[in-house]
Backbone:
């Protein structure tokens, strides 16, 4: 693998570097030449000759252009004469729209001469109006220049559009057939300042503490290198999307006051061979010129995936070349060069081990979804720009209603709320707008006019009540936050939202209870309508996944035993690491597990039939029910021992995202 890193340079697209500015330059020169070289407008001559021509009666008209250029048009008949041979030859090519002669003359001088000529005409008893003198103004130099600039502009726009299409880039700025090998990194430096600082990043206290060190590295690198310490080259930010990884990296750049290169892992990947590697080279070249600086690579897993371990999957040569280039660039620069690479991923498990080795991304900072107090802080940050807030909007209430939301979703909610309020012509954004915004972010757009027949609506209501009641009476299920049957998005006709406990480890009973709760929807349909619908598809999918995980990953099945076939990197490929017999056993155990959950839930729900009925009819009437509504309808939850309000200021692990259950 190591020797793979040295790829022959010849893979670079196009042997010699073709700079697009050359083309622009050449075009410009050609245009200037056309503009300034004298226009061939007739043979040159002088007044004495012209005077003679006029007296001979050969001239049809004279045109004085821009008061200085006299153009002479001959009579067609006169052109045939021998002395105009040169002109007549030309006329055959050009047609006689062009003047036959021209020369520079001053207007006053010309006018005098014409007066003089007219006298001569009269003396010789000739018609003084035998020729015409016209004055014309033609586009002057600046007018011409303007036209040309306009023309060039249009041309360049077309050219750019075309080459962008050909470049096939994912719309990155400046994608161009000629600089396809250039890095697409977006650069923020003095001119396009990174205006983020640590105060824009809410929560994430530990992460901030860790990255502050990096700021110090960049500002006082000498302090560290003098003592022989090595400044880290790479920092990997690990966390789900939208939790503020980019924001944090930007804040580091903003605080350290250094340039910031931002790009995404997928920006390296192009269909042409060698482009990725050449972009990596270019990126590092630029970065070294701007050092000290920060390179931020989002979604590094797009290039950083483990290199082909199994032949079945087929290795992606182009991606591997890119990764190899990145590795060798990271090894290549000295630790004191002042370039620090920050990268983000939500799949650290799929990354190639070589990336995580010392001297590369040897620091990892985990960023999780914010907990209650974290969310409250993020709400505070994003509520500040909303200038007109009604008094009932409280960040802590909003935070309580958004378990599992990441910072990006919270930012989104605040924006949506303002839009919703504006749409209703309100003077200030109130709590109702935030409720709507939260619903919208969870479930997509509310489909006000999505037509649902009353029967369908009843089925949805009973389905959701089934989930809600099952969760209400199962000891280990997550507490309910709200149930809704407002149709949203493409598929979801309704959903129940839960408040997941803040925990990393789940016991078997908890997983089983959550499976039962997820089955509750279909079972309620079965009990009340005697038939089942497709509405449970998503529920069943989740149950199946959970059941297989319990047996093949968490070793929670007696017969299959304490084994785990966890394989995030696809190392096994299409080969199963177990025998056909085990496969059959797993399948039958999964089925048995789900069946037992089904039977248990059905027994429970049959005993709670009246409660389901109460909740379903309330849902049909109100469409959305909160936990408090349910408590009024069917009494407090019997087993609600852990009130999942985490104590303030105590750092707790982040919450698992509340997935809307269908
Ligand atoms: P990631 O890179 O982790 O996918 P981003 O950094 O792009 O997420 O976050 C997207 C947006 O979400 C940010 O621009 C910011 O508005 C908001 N956001 C996320 N986390 C936070 C936070 N901790 N504090 C304030 N805003 C946040
Ligand atoms: Zn469901």
Residues:
């Amino acid at each position: 693998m190591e020797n793979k890193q040295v790829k022959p340079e010849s893979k670079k697209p196009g042997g010699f570097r073709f700079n697009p500015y050359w083309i622009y330059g050449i075009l410009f020169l050609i245009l200037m030449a056309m503009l300034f070289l004298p226009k061939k407008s007739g043979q040159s001559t002088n007044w004495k000759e012209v005077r003679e021509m006029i007296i001979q009666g050969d001239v049809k008209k004279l045109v004085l252009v821009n008061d200085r250029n006299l153009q002479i048009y001959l009579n067609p008949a006169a052109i045939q004469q021998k002395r105009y041979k040169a002109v007549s030859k030309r006329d055959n090519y050009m047609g006689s729209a062009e003047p036959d002669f021209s020369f520079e003359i001053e207007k006053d001088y010309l006018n005098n001469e014409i007066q003089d000529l007219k006298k001569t005409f009269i003396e010789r008893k000739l018609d003084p109006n035998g020729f015409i003198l016209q004055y014309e103004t033609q586009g002057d130099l600046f007018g011409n220049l303007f036209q040309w600039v306009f023309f060039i502009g249009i041309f360049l726009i077309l050219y750019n559009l075309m080459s962008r299409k050909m470049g096939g880039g994912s719309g990155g700025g400046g994608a161009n057939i000629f600089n396809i090998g250039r890095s697409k990194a977006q650069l923020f430096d003095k001119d396009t300042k990174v205006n983020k600082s640590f105060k824009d990043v809410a929560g994430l206290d530990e992460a901030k503490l860790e990255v502050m060190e990096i700021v110090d590295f960049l500002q006082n690198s000498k302090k560290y290198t003098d003592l022989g310490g090595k400044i880290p080259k790479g920092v990997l930010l690990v966390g789900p999307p939208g939790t503020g990884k980019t924001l944090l990296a930007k804040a580091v750049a903003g605080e350290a006051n250094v340039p910031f290169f931002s790009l995404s892992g997928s920006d390296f990947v192009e269909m042409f061979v060698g482009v990725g590697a050449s972009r990596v080279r270019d990126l590092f070249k630029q970065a070294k010129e701007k050092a000290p600086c920060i390179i931020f690579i989002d979604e590094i897993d797009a290039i950083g995936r483990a290199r082909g371990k199994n032949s079945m999957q087929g290795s992606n040569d182009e991606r591997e070349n890119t990764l190899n280039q990145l590795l060798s660039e990271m090894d290549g620069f000295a630790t004191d060069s002042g370039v620090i690479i920050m990268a983000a991923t939500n799949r650290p498990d799929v990354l190639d081990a070589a990336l995580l080795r010392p001297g590369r991304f040897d620091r990892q900072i985990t960023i999780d979804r914010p907990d209650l107090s974290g969310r409250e802080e993020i709400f505070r940050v994003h509520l500040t720009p909303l200038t007109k807030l009604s008094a009932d909007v409280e960040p802590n209430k909003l935070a309580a209603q958004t378990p599992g939301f990441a910072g990006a979703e919270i930012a989104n909610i605040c924006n949506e709320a303002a839009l919703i309020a504006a749409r209703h012509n309100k003077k200030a954004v109130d709590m109702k707008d935030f409720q709507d915004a939260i619903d919208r972010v969870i479930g997509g757009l509310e489909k006000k006019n999505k037509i649902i027949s009353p029967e369908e609506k009843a089925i949805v209501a009973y389905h959701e009540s089934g989930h809600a009641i099952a969760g209400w009476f199962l000891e280990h299920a997550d507490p309910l936050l709200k149930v809704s049957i407002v149709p949203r998005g493409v598929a979801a006709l309704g959903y129940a939202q839960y408040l997941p406990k803040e925990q990393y480890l789940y016991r078997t009973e908890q997983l089983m209870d959550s499976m039962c709760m997820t089955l509750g929807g279909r079972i309620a349909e079965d009990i009340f309508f005697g038939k089942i619908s497709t509405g449970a598809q998503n529920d069943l999918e989740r149950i199946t996944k959970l059941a297989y995980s319990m047996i093949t990953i968490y070793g929670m099945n007696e017969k299959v035993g304490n084994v785990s076939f966890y394989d995030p990197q696809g190392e096994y490929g299409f080969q199963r690491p177990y025998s056909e017999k085990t496969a059959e056993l797993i399948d039958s155990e999964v089925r048995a597990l789900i069946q037992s959950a089904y039977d248990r839930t059905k027994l429970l729900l049959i005993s709670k039939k009246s409660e389901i009925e109460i909740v379903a009819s309330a849902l049909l009437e109100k469409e959305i029910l909160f936990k408090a509504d349910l408590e009024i309808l069917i009494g407090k939850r019997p087993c609600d021992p852990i009130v999942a309000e985490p104590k303030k200021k105590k750092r707790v692990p982040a919450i698992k995202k509340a997935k809307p259950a269908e």
Q: What stands out?
A: The longest helix spans residues 580-607.
